[in-house]
Task: structure prediction
Amino acid sequence: MRYVLDRIESGDMPSAAWVVATKEGPISEGAAGDAVVTPERVPASAETIYDLASLTKPLVTSFLYLLLRRSLGLNEATPAHKVVPEIGRLDKRDITLGHLLTHTSGLPAWVPFYLGGAGMREYLLQMRELPPEHRPGTRVVYSCAGYILLGEILHRSATVPLDRLMEQEIAGKLGLHDTMFNPSRGLMPRVAATEDSCHYERRLAGPRARRYSGFRTDVIRGEVHDQNAWVLGGVAGNAGLFSTARDTAAIALEYVGAGRGLLDGNAIRLAQENLTPGLNEARSIAFRIASVGETAAGPDLPTTAFGHNGFTGTSVWVDPSRARVHVLLTNRVHPRVSDTVDMPALRHGFHSAASRV
Result:
């Protein structure tokens, strides 16, 4: 796709892989640029495995909820503290799984939990003490904290770790061999690199981070970029998934009933329907919907389009009217996070180009 090649040549990202697909298969597919720039150059290919960052939320955490909710005895009205009593302070007792899934829980967008502890127990104790930013159900605030909590809820409900659940229920059933948490050493030659030395997160964490010695000090490759997820062993509900563009598209197609049929009709409806009417963003379970506000969908996808972005430069957006998925995976944070690249505009341009193929 010429548009992606132009963006790489202009320096917006070192590499990219893309897939535009329907039930019949890929319509457009390719890769370009360098998956690794430093300390060596490694060309990207369709087989390159990217850190999907927050695409973990819809491709693992929300997907597993929709797939297993009945067998696990969960629903959108289930209070979160019933599964994870550690957060059961009075001001958290009204938070339900539905609130967490649609980013309306009142939990903040991001917290550097790793500064206060190195495990889920410490994360949850900090979460318990967080003052709510709004009453549950009254405002959309995209929250990594909420999805970390959701990942733990799934783990406890299934009594199976999140990465193993993903292997059993998603990758295994879809026949995906290039989708995983914590890529093995043998896969490392195919893994795209991300940031050098966590400079972005050091700045984001602020003055408290000056006393923290746990930031990585070399090029991150084969480890999740997100520090909260990395401290949890690389497996969390908010981040940690690695995959190729082709495998990413295979999971996304399930959300329009164009894959192997893992999700039932009600699950697909919950992923496509606006469950936050009248609020500041249109959110379904798993996704943002293009009908409210400025989104990464751009002008050439319909307002019914739904999708998700990842900080490392990844995105998946779905056009339900054509049962078509648009996957763009980049490592735009390698070797440093640029403040000059307009990622919303880049994604708009990709979707405009993709809608014409």
Summary: The chain has two domains: 2-64+165-355, 65-164.
